[in-house]
Amino acid sequence: MFSDTHKQNKKVGEPPGTPTYTGNKPAAPSIIDVVTYNQHDYHETTGTDLDKCLPEKIEKNVYTWVSIHGLNDSNLMSAIAKRYDLHPLTLEDIMNVEQRPKVEEFDNYLFITLKILLWKTKSSTFSVKQLSLVLGHDFVLSFQEGETPHFDGIKKRLQSTANQRLRQHGSDYLAYRLIDAVVDKYFIVLEALGDDIEAIEERIIAAPTTQNMHTMYRFKRQMLLVRKAIWPMREAIGHLVHVEDKLITNFTRVYLRDVYDHTVQAIDTLETFRDMVGSMMDMYLSSLTNRMNEIMKTLTIIATIFMPITTIASIYGMNFIYMPELKYHWGYPIVLCVMLSIAIGMLYYFRTKKWI
Amino acid sequence: MFSDTHKQNKKVGEPPGTPTYTGNKPAAPSIIDVVTYNQHDYHETTGTDLDKCLPEKIEKNVYTWVSIHGLNDSNLMSAIAKRYDLHPLTLEDIMNVEQRPKVEEFDNYLFITLKILLWKTKSSTFSVKQLSLVLGHDFVLSFQEGETPHFDGIKKRLQSTANQRLRQHGSDYLAYRLIDAVVDKYFIVLEALGDDIEAIEERIIAAPTTQNMHTMYRFKRQMLLVRKAIWPMREAIGHLVHVEDKLITNFTRVYLRDVYDHTVQAIDTLETFRDMVGSMMDMYLSSLTNRMNEIMKTLTIIATIFMPITTIASIYGMNFIYMPELKYHWGYPIVLCVMLSIAIGMLYYFRTKKWI
Amino acid sequence: MFSDTHKQNKKVGEPPGTPTYTGNKPAAPSIIDVVTYNQHDYHETTGTDLDKCLPEKIEKNVYTWVSIHGLNDSNLMSAIAKRYDLHPLTLEDIMNVEQRPKVEEFDNYLFITLKILLWKTKSSTFSVKQLSLVLGHDFVLSFQEGETPHFDGIKKRLQSTANQRLRQHGSDYLAYRLIDAVVDKYFIVLEALGDDIEAIEERIIAAPTTQNMHTMYRFKRQMLLVRKAIWPMREAIGHLVHVEDKLITNFTRVYLRDVYDHTVQAIDTLETFRDMVGSMMDMYLSSLTNRMNEIMKTLTIIATIFMPITTIASIYGMNFIYMPELKYHWGYPIVLCVMLSIAIGMLYYFRTKKWI
Amino acid sequence: MFSDTHKQNKKVGEPPGTPTYTGNKPAAPSIIDVVTYNQHDYHETTGTDLDKCLPEKIEKNVYTWVSIHGLNDSNLMSAIAKRYDLHPLTLEDIMNVEQRPKVEEFDNYLFITLKILLWKTKSSTFSVKQLSLVLGHDFVLSFQEGETPHFDGIKKRLQSTANQRLRQHGSDYLAYRLIDAVVDKYFIVLEALGDDIEAIEERIIAAPTTQNMHTMYRFKRQMLLVRKAIWPMREAIGHLVHVEDKLITNFTRVYLRDVYDHTVQAIDTLETFRDMVGSMMDMYLSSLTNRMNEIMKTLTIIATIFMPITTIASIYGMNFIYMPELKYHWGYPIVLCVMLSIAIGMLYYFRTKKWI
Amino acid sequence: MFSDTHKQNKKVGEPPGTPTYTGNKPAAPSIIDVVTYNQHDYHETTGTDLDKCLPEKIEKNVYTWVSIHGLNDSNLMSAIAKRYDLHPLTLEDIMNVEQRPKVEEFDNYLFITLKILLWKTKSSTFSVKQLSLVLGHDFVLSFQEGETPHFDGIKKRLQSTANQRLRQHGSDYLAYRLIDAVVDKYFIVLEALGDDIEAIEERIIAAPTTQNMHTMYRFKRQMLLVRKAIWPMREAIGHLVHVEDKLITNFTRVYLRDVYDHTVQAIDTLETFRDMVGSMMDMYLSSLTNRMNEIMKTLTIIATIFMPITTIASIYGMNFIYMPELKYHWGYPIVLCVMLSIAIGMLYYFRTKKWI
Fold this sequence. Notes:
The structure is a homopentamer. Chain A is built from 9 helices and 7 strands. Chain A is an alpha+beta fold and about 350 residues long. The first copy, chain A, has a 7-stranded mixed beta sheet with strand order 2-1-3-7-6-5-4, with helices on both faces. The two termini of chain A are about 50 Å apart.
């Protein structure tokens, strides 16, 4: 999975604006989902043909949300780029799914690239997907790899006729809502990571094993992936809050500030995790050394007790003809007593040293 | 306890301003405490019904302090939000008790979120509670989970008729006093942590055990929690000091600068603790290695003394028919002397090496 | 290879603008490659004589790209410097191939120094070469050591008559394309490093050896070299994006911002690698300690089982005349049983301790 | 000593400006030392009664230096505060001797809090005292705990009638001289710490012991205390240099810049010490491991030489009736030779491995 | 050598401008070297008497370079200070040779303090000397301890009548050339340090010894000294580049920017060294642990093979009367076979574990 993150498929020497899809999804047809709405109306078309889905002329005071799932159809992408007058670099960035999260201002639109963290409950892993947003005066374009369900809630809310902010306010508020949904998902992944930390923690305190070490290592790698996705978000969304652009109303700016706070909070949590894993690593290493001390103590105690006794026994096992002790009637019991005293003395010595 | 800090209960797709309580207190009725005062008058009402507690019209030149204990009653919260014209995000932030400390400016009020560190002497632990303040022209709203006694002193002082700043100056000075009380509490927790450090320190110097390691680890985790609560305070209060808002008078600004200094001092102390625990960890690890050296030395000394003697004894324990030494009359004493010399020689060698 | 990076051959006391070549290529004649082009025309001359290659007068609206391969011919360099009115320091910086990447503004041109990372597939290593660019109103000068093929793609594109940006836009766009080609190459090296990391990783998890450690060390050194080349690029290209100079059009500035993003992404990846290698080092060290624990456990188990048995056997090997047990008929079997019990008891003890 | 640094005695709920002395000196009467001087005159009064010491009216063009030793007399402090119109927070900060070094601007004065490091040659330790300065248009107030001799030199110089800057220039120059004296003292403590480092260093290189480790730990703690005192000084004095206040003349500003440089130099030295102690710790730990290697090698050599010999001897000590070797006449010498060969072979093997 | 760097000989209480020499050179007479030059003329006088060397009146359009070697003659220093109207602090800073590199602006001159790193090829060490420069409108004063040859090249060039920048441009260009010569010297020291690193590196990879550790430690200390000298240079020269002062012409500013780049490059190299030594330390420590593993493996293999055999032999060495095996004719060969099988089995087991 890791090697995905550092591949860059663009051919050197190609003109920079050449749209080349860099992801590894099989080429399924892209799905286009066009929503047009304002305070009074709501209309949605889904299909694979842009011309059919997107009406040629859209009335004033109507907001359009074009959502593209699947980025491999370069003809479609070019058509959209032409329709909305996107810069060649924007098109390239949308199709290169290894972008760093960022916000870029163009003459007639804002280009926003984010990372979606998708938690897979089954396998207890997460995957990183790219979401690109183009925010214009009265439209929002969203581009993602494959179909993902995290904006379903927002779509439902758009459909509802109840008096509500989402329909009243413009495209910038819709863009905010999409970003907010992405950032909210981060906390699900962070919570899962937090649960993992606690699980490792308990196991390390109970009994440190090589397995724990490998788990910690895998965990650290996952954190690096999350970090790489979330850290640049701070800068990107901070830029969005302070960008002097008419596209962002003051009304929405207050909400974006809130998303910014959430991003900072996610980074805080991640850094806390980092510190905790660092501490755990120290604890693990000291446990290993402690354990070795235990092992060595056992060996030393056994050796220290039995070696002197064996030596004494070996001495009286020698075959010298003139060994007067051997003939004493009490020789054997006395030697046994001496051996016992040595054993007891050693044990006492170890007790004073608090080894046993 | 830890998992509390990274949970985020908001449903993805919900409109952002939906007030949802994220704490884990059981749903007891919220208590409303309304204090109206100025230089001459003081009036206080406590209850659970907003309409009864808060008079519909408040005279000019009278300051109101509405203090809410318990955040789970969303109807009450909405009523207050409507009364004081709070932004939907403010309401959401008040009820989401996992906020990062921050200060936000709105058109007609300042919103301040802080963390209260409550030290529990009985269990020698602390808990983290959220305090939200809304500072308006002539009112202060304070929101907290459950009932907490740390503002009792301020209330008493408000009641007193003696000539004093608290009654003379406006709502911004009251807000300052509340923040100051929160920050002062930090030093109680820091002092307790400092005592803990000294206790661990003495034990590690005396004799390092696995238990010390676990204690240090728990300690580090506690420090991370404190850190997460205090660090953002620096930025938040710094923002409050420099905010260009008519709500904060120059008179109060001087006092806020003082609270800012206290926050920085708390962070300094925390960082010093961090460094100390790092050094202790080094000391602990080197103690473990030292200890292993001691153990290994014991084993080596014993083995080195007794192994050669046993070998000699074994040799003379062989049953060869032609072993001339066995027949010498002085064979046995000579061998004993040789053994003794080996033992003494080894001990002397170890002494020159300073092992014993 | 390393010692190359810190040598500085300039003689102390020499006037600073003295052009001295500091690389270690043998003195082959420098190759000059002059391309003149505009939207309609394209002309290329290659040779070793500047006067023959570079026409004395170039028409208006024609862009010139002078590409020098080989920097050891100081006469040639001086001639070019004179022709394009280069500052003495620029000339010195071009010939000193140990420059730190940077961008410098002069009155009539921008001077840009970059590092090219060349991956050699055969030896699985990379080398660092310097590229210096001088960007004037209607010319680009590029200087490199030896002949390198990484701009062939750009040249081909320049030759093509198809309607395209490269021919339409001025010298600043050409300079951008050259820089972009250099930065794109970084990802090839980073990808190779990433593959290396995964290879080491698998080997360390399987079985840690001293060899792994040396590999990791070599890897870290390589990363330091890459780091030294890429880090200053961020600052340099960032400077280029924000430089207030008429030489950079707004059209090109958008593209430079894109290169800047790529550089930041390369740095991000490098820092992630750094963290990963740090974690691997921890894992390696803990593996070593774990291994020692394994070894010590084996030794301790063996010693603890056989030492007491040997001691008992030695005791009954003593030659005392009065050892009543020796005469019992069941003495031998009983002693054997005792020995067996000790062995079994010890094994059981180790099992309860989870050592076996 | 450590616990002193994090205690904060202020009662929560007390009004912030309540002057409460937080130090632990016994309550001796405060000593007031009033110096009035200008270019021509010098007058000094010392006592414990403010009214007697400080004349009610001071002529124009006369500078006053009021020096208070002992901060526990809150009546006196209030009297001074009233006389010089000090802000309640200033008074509180003066009496709270756990302040972080800082500079605060008030309408009519500058408030400066510093830490004095007092080196005690006898006990080879230092203590941290607080110095508060209030710099007004024509007065300097200095507040310290207990009597300290470090300003005696400045007082002597003030008394001298010789033509000199101290009498010619105003109160800001006097304040500078007081600060300069404090910062100069830091180098005495740093020098003592430097000598300590060298002493530990030599001992660790000679022979690492647990005692060294404890010394290093104590040393690190001392450095943390110094660090906590000096680091904020940089910011504080830097603020003083750049403060736009008429109280600081350009003449004095040049001198303050010099004190700032000294502070930075002190911090540099401290950071260098920090790095050195870190390296020493590494060296100590590697020494421990090296030592263990030595111990293990000794054990292994002994065991490897004597174990095989003992085994052979044991074999020929068996009591089998049919052991033909036992009857060979040369059996015993041959076995001895074999044993000797094994011993020599092992020693040779260890020599090839460079263990001996 | 180290203790030199933190001594501060100034007496506390002394007026700050008192010039006191803090170096430890023996008091030899200071040598004064006065060079007056312009585009047409060059004149040089060397001596120990200021009045003789420095003409009372210097014509317009003539630049003066006064170079003082030896700083212990305070009368001379005062005379120079008086002649060129130097600030008392400047004089103090010149004579205090423990200054941190810095640039200070005064009304009529710029004061620059640098560190010269002098490499001594014989002893393979370097020493740190201080160079102070005073740059006025038409003069440069340079102050150094003892006589040092590193400006000889510049002097020679000044003497030469050939058309050249050094004579054409003013005193600021001369100051630049002096600084450039100092910074160039850094690379000689860095190169020597780099060679040291490679030497240690090879030795550690070959065989880690305690000696390597001590070498690494000494090396780290040297790097700290270099670091302390070079790091502040970045800030100082950066300040010089951006200082808004008429003394620095735009012509020279371009050159100073070049020196700044060199300083940054030196710092980069130093930081790379730092990282390399850190990695080496890791490699050294892991080598030690690896080595211990080797030792322990040897011991364990020997013990595991011989202990069981010895135990069996001991059993058949017991003197029980009824031990039926002893009487079997094949008993002895069978036991020998069993022993051999055990040995072979153990060896096989260790081979499967890849220990041998």
